[in-house]
Amino acid sequence: MAARQPDASAHPGADLEVQLVPMRRRHLRHVLQIERQVYPRPWTYVLFSQELSLVTSRAYYVARVDGQVVGYSGVMLSLEDAHVTNIAVEPEWHRHGIAQRLLANDAREAMRRGARHLTLEVRVSNIAAQALYRKFGFAPAGVRRNYYVETNEDALIMWADDICSPGYRRRLATLEAQVPGTTVIECIAP
Fold first, then answer.
1. Catalytic entry in 80, 133, 148, 168
2. What is the edge-to-edge ordering of all strands in the sheet holding 139-148?
3. Annotated catalytic residue: which of 35, 72, 121, 168?
């Protein structure tokens, strides 16, 4: 079944249902298609497969609309820190709350697994992503020079601290409530 294409003339509808499900190898064909669309140096099938095998320290989810993968994200856990490894949305599904749903899910999964802080790197030129991350409480903490080797672009390092605090939980609940439609989440088994 083909995914319903978003209506660019309408506000993302209240009837939009997005399923967030644990990423499996069967999703990788679609994930790699999105990778090739949004990244100059996409991850490979082998790299994703290796990441998926690290179940105790990784959590990867795909976002599906009408059964079709429209986005994905991943988080790597290390003691009290969780690192958002990637987050990507098929370009025609931008501005429909897919990334916001995925990032909220990453934060909740990190909390569920005992992390207290979230971190990520983002291209210094990716102002839209930085704005989303700031909504989630991420603040700049440094720069990694020439981090993106394919373009020699710097990465802005961002951190969100104390994600288990009542204030952060309220922030997360508010952000989740702002996304129109429904989000259905299938949890990763412990």
1. 133
2. 139-148, 153-160, 117-123, 81-89, 68-78, 58-65, 17-22, 182-185
3. 121
Q: Does the annotation count 35 as an active-site position? A: no
Query: Dihedral of the CA atoms 176, 182, 186, 190 (nearest 10)?
Result: 20
Query: How does pLDDT run across 145-159, given as a tens digit for each residue?
Result: 999 988 889 999 999
The question of whether 133 is a catalytic residue gets the answer yes
Taking the whole predicted model, whether its pTM rises above 0.70 is answered as yes
Q: At what angle do helices 45-53 and 28-38 cross, to 10 degrees?
A: 120
Say how far apart CA 122 and CA 86 lie, in whole Å.
Answer: 9
SS3 15: coil
**What confidence category does residue 1 fall into, taking pLDDT thresholds of 50, 70 and 90?**
very low
**β-pairing verdict for 17-22 and 182-185:** parallel
User: Which tokens sit at 78?
Assistant: 């290390």
Distances (CA, A) of 109 to 58, 72, 126, 144: 10, 14, 25, 26
- Pick 187 or 19 by higher pLDDT: 19
Residues 6 or more apart whose Cβ sits within 8 Å of residue 170: none
